Amino acid sequence: MRKVLRSEDGQSSLLDAMIFFAILMIGSLILAFVPFPSGSPETRGVMRLYGESTLDSYLHSTLNRTSYEYEDEMIHLDDRKVSELIVENLYLRDNTDVDNESLIEGIEKPLNETLDELIFPQYKYDFTAWSSGGANLGYGHESEEVDEEIISATQELHTPDYNETYTANLKIWLR
Amino acid sequence: MKRKINDRGVVGFYEDVPALLIVVVATVIFLASIYSAVNRHGQRTEISDFEREAVEFAEGVRASPLLLYEDNVGQFDATKVQYLDSENLTLSFDHPDFYYRVELIDVSNYSVKYNQTWSREPDFNFTEEHYEEGRKVIHLSVTIVVDTDEIHPARLRVEVWK
Question: What residue segments make up the domains of chain A, in order of their start?
Answer without folding.
Answer: 44-174
